From TrEMBL:
This is Gentisate 1,2-dioxygenase. PANTHER family: 1,2-DIOXYGENASE PROTEIN-RELATED (PTHR41517), CUPIN (PTHR41517:SF1). It comes from the Bacteria. InterPro entries: Cupin_2 (IPR013096), GDO-like (IPR047183), RmlC-like_jellyroll (IPR014710), RmlC_Cupin_sf (IPR011051). The keyword Oxidoreductase applies. The keyword Lipid biosynthesis does not apply. Keywords: Dioxygenase, Oxidoreductase. It comes from Devosia yakushimensis. SUPFAM superfamilies: RmlC-like cupins. Residues 103-169 form the Cupin type-2 domain.
Amino acid sequence: MAESAKPHGMQPEETPELAELYAGFARHSIMPLWTQIGDLMPRHPRPKAVPHLWRWADLYPLAQKAGELVPVGRGGERRALGLGNPGLSGNAYISPTLWAAIQYLGPHETAPEHRHSQNAFRFVVEGEGVWTVVNGDPVRMGRGDFLLTPGWNFHGHHNATDKPMAWIDGLDIPFSYQNDVGFFEFGADRVTDYATPDISRSERLWCHPGLRPLSGLSDTVSSPIGAYRWEHTDRALNGQLLLEEEGHPATIAEGHAAIRYINPTTGGDVMPTIRAEFHRLRPGVVTQRRREVGSSVFQVFEGGGRVELGEQSHSLEMGDLFVVPSWVPWTIAAESQLDLFRFSDAPIMERLNFARSAVGPDA
């Protein structure tokens, strides 16, 4: 084959002159594209993160043991067990953009206040008794509640009861770390308000359907709502399924109700880097096979079923968490009614115009 007719991607012949050229590249910190284009620009995403499932039955006892042995306070700041994706070289990242952790607070313990650039939320799969105090506003945490701590808001937690409590934390730590955008600042060594109101100030302002306070007419980057309560989520999901029963199947996918938590000032996602949803599948429903650019994390809130992640298959029980890396095919089958909390990096992918998906048997 003539030199000009060599197929695309063929490497040059090794010669003393080429070796000298490469040595010059190395001296001047140059890395030629032709030696790495397959890694830098693959034909489709090839994530280093791998699909993985963590059992709540394993996680919670470890969190309890940490509660006995590890203090919470300045220095460590939080008793949080980061879920490290086995494909990401020992980092406590569940995906390249997302962090997920089990946080555990013992009876009458306080996690001191601090703030950071990273956006954060909490989702409670079981338990009650902790208040998270966000910019001085005590917000009750209960089962099924989704709670926000947008970036650069002071926040701490206090347990007002004689029982411990655990929940999941979700943050955009890996994304902010890789892009060098993080700031951190200590706040009070305790929390600024030990009150235990049933309803927070942010909820009294913002959680009335279709109503917006005149004092909040300017749009905000993140949602001003401190807690999205389970009673509203549950009612919305049941309402969708009821409409289906009444003959309005176009309102939802068959047997699959779902909601997205939104920022009421914009109608968009609750935070600029994280999307959060809740899904309810009737018994026997199997979702379509799907691939998506970006990563998602699911936690089983109630019920049982199975998830297919690429070539892997896992049974699902309450509290189990699993991660779906970019472009890994997945589908979920509900054996009983199956409730799932989901969060993802979709806002990042959409704003940067990287979002892509495929749905169906050939996805």
